[in-house]
Amino acid sequence: MTAIRIDGATRLYAIVGDPIVQVKSPELYSELFAAAQMNAVMLPMQILPAHFESTMEALVALGNLDGLLVTVPYKARAVPFAHRLGPTAGRIGALNALRREADGTWTGDMFDGMGFVRAAERKGCVLRGRRVALFGAGGAGSAIGCELAAKEVESLAIIDPQHERATALAGTLAREFPDCRIEAATAVPAGTTMIVNASTVGMRSGDGLPGDIGSLDSAMIVGDVIVSQEPTALIRTAMRHGSPFVIGREMLAGQADALLAFFRRG
Amino acid sequence: MTAIRIDGATRLYAIVGDPIVQVKSPELYSELFAAAQMNAVMLPMQILPAHFESTMEALVALGNLDGLLVTVPYKARAVPFAHRLGPTAGRIGALNALRREADGTWTGDMFDGMGFVRAAERKGCVLRGRRVALFGAGGAGSAIGCELAAKEVESLAIIDPQHERATALAGTLAREFPDCRIEAATAVPAGTTMIVNASTVGMRSGDGLPGDIGSLDSAMIVGDVIVSQEPTALIRTAMRHGSPFVIGREMLAGQADALLAFFRRG
């Protein structure tokens, strides 16, 4: 591992969110930058909700900050800071990465869906034809839903306590992917073969399951975006029933190459 | 040297200034923090003058930023961000350090003068009784003038292209130190035995001397706050004439222990 150095010429990248201690990107990208011989670091920055827009304005105006990652709860609120959006971010109205261009404008895109799908594929999971129940219609859920539909899952049932958010996402994705059966739901449908948690349930240590997940078995794929030291209740349940699973850290690792290339304008 | 690590729990410190690539504090303090087992880093942050106040507001509102260093040209503009000032900062109306207290308020103080004086004393320079010519009545110049007067130099002639700034500083210090002969000047007085550059002359690579410094010899002490790879024109002149000298990096090193204790509320 290449040692991280910081000096006056170090270029800054930051991941903004609230809370922030749980994020793993500062380690991951600071080390990737060092390994790529970039004099750059990825910092955790906790922005409180009342200050999000004013802080983002300050960050994009810094003379030596070149990129941002965006995590919960800001993936949609960050969109207005992009002068242009990549295809996935444009489709779903949420982003998790912003980079400064040579002319000082900012480009945003969303890599969570790609990261999740790559992580599942690296584990040998076949996604095509799956009947998916997706908890959470926020930024990460939108991105994952979009990418799963692009991978030709058979159906996608979107569950969110804010039901209108689930309905809106289902509508957006149904227009883009007419061959996939996409709908908002209030429970995991019978016949589901893949369950993904893209809600924030599991971030807090006492959290349980994101909802009633029915019975699991080894034919069911389970995914969880939560990045945590301990497995979430959902992942523990998957382990107990022998279900293949994808965790948040694998989703992060699955998008690292693409994100590094994005930041390097590669 | 302890390796620098960055993760989600890393606490942030930043040095704000414009330009920023020349600063040495990011390396120095990131390594001191690591050596002190603190999960913390010191970052360079380039704030453009039109954005100073709004950016500072954003930085002090970050949930995981605990301290700031302030360099050119912001040492006076940063004062309103302190809820209370240490004695030196209060005297001169400029600060180079801010720390967040447990209650979320901010305390500011100024360590440049102490750093300069300690660096001179470490080199064996006797300051008492010196007749000093000081170029630059900004934040660093004010701090150094104050600390030299406290060390009982005989006289202090303050030279600044903004003459009213020199006059104001001379008035402030004369009230505090009635036993020292303190005045604004337009040239280095005859009989000067110590010359200090606390102006920004020397920051740019083509810069010459801060003014007409007359003739140097081995009895004259020369000091320069400029932090640079190459010695400044002033320090090169001191070297040629065998004058003992103090450079900007030594001033930084001279205040490091006190600043680390300040940040650790120690």
In words, what does this structure look like?
Two copies of one chain form a homodimer. Chain A is α/β, with parallel strands linked by helices and 266 residues long. Helices cover 33% and strands 21% of the residues of chain A. In chain A, the strands form two sheets. In chain A, strands 2-1-3-5-6-4 form a six-stranded mixed β-sheet, sandwiched between helices. In chain A, strand 7 (131-135), helix 5 (139-150) and strand 8 (155-159) form a beta-alpha-beta unit. The interface between A and B is large, with 37 and 38 residues.
Q: Just name the CATH architecture of the largest domain in chain A.
A: 3-Layer(aba) Sandwich
**Biggest sheet character of chain A:** 6 strands, mixed
The third-level CATH topology of the largest domain in chain A is Rossmann fold
Query: Can you count the beta strands of chain A?
Result: 12
Q: What best-fitting shape of chain A do the alpha-carbon axes yield?
A: globular
Number of domains of chain A: 2
Indicate the CATH class of the largest domain in chain A: Alpha Beta
Going across the major beta sheet of chain A, what is the strand order?
2-1-3-5-6-4
The oligomeric state of the chains shown is: homodimer
Strand content of chain A: 15-25%
Average pLDDT taken over every residue of chain A:
96
